[in-house]
What we know:
Blueprint: H1 2-40, H2 46-58, H3 61-64, H4 69-79, H5 82-117, H6 124-143, H7 151-154, H8 156-167, H9 170-214
Helix pairs in contact: 1-2, 1-5, 4-5, 5-6, 5-9, 6-9
Amino acid sequence: MKEELIARVVQVLRINMSWMTWNLFLAFIPLALSVWLFRFRRGGSWLWWLGFLVFYAFLPNAPYLLTDVIHLIDDIRTIQSVWMITLVLIPVYLLVILGGFEAYVISLINWGYYLHRIGKSQWIWRVELITHFLCAIGVYLGRFLRFNSWDFITQPDALLTKGVEEILGKQPLVIIAITFVVLAGLYWIMKRVTLGLSQRDSKIGINSGRANSNTPNI
């Protein structure tokens, strides 16, 4: 019985690893772009603006991982073992979902860093709210209408016609509003956690450097 249960868990994880790996890859594309755009480059060139558009096209893929919790519910029904669910399934899903959302948080932190660098710090919170709203729309388009980031190029007509028509409905607007609130709330929490850990590591590094400078060479 245990062998069958373990085999079932392995099978479920093996099936999930394909879409988990792919969704994480899509989530880390905007993260990589945010480092290049907002940390190492200065805007103005056509290449920067092209990268900026690609960044926003792929950014919803990061918070989109939050909606993958629906797969967890299906897997729980399939495995039906409290220990396997608690010790194996839930940790894997948490790692993937938090990894994707952390990519979203760091991407926006880098965007805010860029705004601060060019003297537009007062725009940071506005840009964050606009981004949450745009990503809420993107998550809806991806989860319910099954559009992808590259559909902006491959089928823009379908994205505009079907997407706009669907979004203007009452139920989609409610879902988008709820998604916006969830994104804004989780981002507010995770941003402070991330910045807090970053500042702590910086202080540790500075203190270690001072300690090393006071240590005589042998």
